[in-house]
């Protein structure tokens, strides 16, 4: 017998982007959406068009350019939100409007300040309004898991009668536990008489670390769609992690009689891309995609794995596209081996991109004995995912120690001109950032700084993420180098280049 299909609704670009400190520009969103299509998600929730002009344009660009998945846009239940969502997604081959209103007493009383009857009426009106535009309308009763079950069922039934083709039950604040949520979904299935006319979906948050468990329990009790985000990012503690959900169903198909259409071999690459573009690093022990997920440290485990991999590995890393490497790349390697490795890691490059990445690879190989897969990913990110570089770091000099004031001198080209500036700081990184500020004269503040080692060992590559705030927008920059101060300078300049690219040089607020 064929197993039942579970639809994967990806909300990395909407709820995922609601993670504090994350702000993606249009190109970054398009890049992620393109990869999500390659991953094989069924629906991409591309954004919340009423939220800003930028989000509207991003949803529209994705709707215009990304083929395969349904493209959804979120809207409050108000007609103007729904109109704006439709304006953004209507160009998609398969557009969806996703509209929501809260049904829990706590949200209705304090947030919406509306009685139950009005919420019921608005839900019906909103869904009907959306149905004028499209026959793919999703309705979410927000905070469903804390709603009165009878009232919730009344709203869901009315929404389906009004034309909702998907009904999504959110555990908005991650309050539910698996047995309870499973029973909740079963009760909705039992009590809502027209439930078979719709796809029943769930959207779980991870406040108690139970989002994936709750989603699995929901599926076992009749949910057909799961809303997920790559790496589990999202509001507060995040959403159901796509990679965990998919691999749980895949690995435990002996227990769960369900399948998705996800190409699992694209999981690792998607996870890396989302982490890199959002600036949200992945904890080492994160299931499926964390650095340690397939690493074995202790002797008994290593012995077991050497004798038979499955003694301590429940899935093959190749299933998520993590290719184990036998060819050692170093300074004596040529283009063929390098290109093959890129392809094995899932990167498709044209000749120009290959040349750029190869030049960077050679210069890294001069400084490092062995180039690992992580190094190659870092090279691709730095060399291929590029935005125009208004500012380029030409040289830098740092003077630092425990008894002197840290001082940095930087030489940066601003278009054609080389500008040199020096500054003192609290530490060498602060000094470098201040010197860069003197060159660029752009009014930014550093919101977040993170340094991590991409690879281990003395000659490890340092990866820096810097988030800069400029006029209420956040710009994320990344830099890599074997020198951590240079990586910091590059990350800072990368964020500034994104800022200049988006804001436009003529509109920049300069420090006077
Ligand atoms: C559970 C979720 O994740 S829902 C999605 C959450 N995501 C976001 O909020 C990100 C995007 N949001 C935004 O950019 C802004 O909040 C906007 C543009 C939507 C609204 O901005 P503002 O008009 O300034 O309102 P603000 O955000 O301060 O307050 C929200 C308003 O929406 C109302 N509201 C909340 N949910 C809904 C809903 N589903 N349907 C209708 N109205 C709603 C609130 O009651 C409040 O109304 P009030 O102004 O009459 O008190
Ligand atoms: C809009 C809905 C689905 C949501 O994000 C939530 O309830 O968490």
TrEMBL record:
Record-listed E.C. numbers: 2.3.3.13
Record text on subunit structure and interactions: Homodimer.
Protein name: 2-isopropylmalate synthase
PANTHER family documented for this protein: 2-ISOPROPYLMALATE SYNTHASE 1, CHLOROPLASTIC-RELATED, HOMOCITRATE SYNTHASE-RELATED
Organism: Metallumcola ferriviriculae
One Gene Ontology MF term: 2-isopropylmalate synthase activity
Cellular component, GO annotation: cytoplasm
Top class in the EC scheme: transferase
InterPro entries membership: 2-IPM_HCS-like, 2-isopropylmalate_synth_dimer, AIPM/Hcit_synth_CS, Aldolase_TIM, LeuA/HCS_post-cat, LeuA_allosteric_dom_sf, LeuA_bact_synth, PYR_CT
Keyword Transport attributed: no
Pathways involved: Amino-acid biosynthesis; L-leucine biosynthesis; L-leucine from 3-methyl-2-oxobutanoate: step 1/4
Residues in the signal sequence: none
Binding-site residues, Mn(2+): 15, 203, 205, 239
Cofactor(s) the protein needs: Mn(2+)
BP GO terms, sorted: L-leucine biosynthetic process
Amino-acid biosynthesis listed as a keyword: yes
Pfam families recorded: HCS_D2, HMGL-like, LeuA_dimer
Record key words, sorted: Acyltransferase, Amino-acid biosynthesis, Branched-chain amino acid biosynthesis, Cytoplasm, Leucine biosynthesis, Manganese, Metal-binding, Transferase
Gene encoding the protein: leuA
Source species taxonomy: Bacteria, Bacillati, Bacillota, Clostridia, Neomoorellales
Role of this protein: Catalyzes the condensation of the acetyl group of acetyl-CoA with 3-methyl-2-oxobutanoate (2-ketoisovalerate) to form 3-carboxy-3-hydroxy-4-methylpentanoate (2-isopropylmalate).
Family, similarity comment: Belongs to the alpha-IPM synthase/homocitrate synthase family. LeuA type 1 subfamily.
Catalysed reactions, as listed in the record: 3-methyl-2-oxobutanoate + acetyl-CoA + H2O = (2S)-2-isopropylmalate + CoA + H(+)
Superkingdom as given in the UniProt entry: Bacteria
